[in-house]
Amino acid sequence: MPVLVNNLQEEVPVVEHLTGLLTRVVEETLMLAGRMVDAEVSLVFVNDEYIRRLNREYRGVDCPTDVLSFAMEEGEPMPEAGEEKVLGDVVISLETARRQGEEYGHGFQREVAYLTVHGVLHLLGYDHQEETAARRMREMEEAVLARVGLTREFPPGR
């Protein structure tokens, strides 16, 4: 399962350890969701200005956000074993991730891993519009983070 990483920003350094961790996060998310097929996910790292433009264009919200997901084939069934599937792009503002990691008190690495899980779950059709769906999504996010050793050791809030 390929995870493609494209760094389009210069504000926050992207080290090999981080890309390795996030690749594992994508893999664990797909396994936990029961979707371990030959799937391709792109992680795109951007700055606040870039994600603000995307947010305005695609969601009509003229401000930066932390993560946006762009599914390639929304509503399409997953392929049979052996078939490749391009799930889509997860676009993350590393500037926002750095700020939020500090704000929530758990650091940049856990925050960007959380945003990665969150974005991949959206690619798989999960949402958080209703309370039950939001609770299920949060449980899956925390389970993946625990699988990669990023347990929750801070006050609730993220």
In summary, what is this structure?
With 158 residues, the protein is an alpha/beta fold. The chain has one domain (3-147): Collagenase (Catalytic Domain) (3-Layer(aba) Sandwich), CATH 3.40.390.30.
Please tell me about this protein's structure.
The chain has 158 residues and is of the alpha/beta class. The protein has one domain (3-147): Collagenase (Catalytic Domain) (3-Layer(aba) Sandwich). The protein has 5 helices and 4 strands; from the N terminus they run βαβαββααα. A 4-stranded mixed beta sheet has the order 1-2-4-3. β1 (3-7), α1 and β2 form a beta-alpha-beta unit. α1 crosses α4 (107-123) and α1 (16-32) crosses α5. It is globular. Belongs to the endoribonuclease YbeY family.
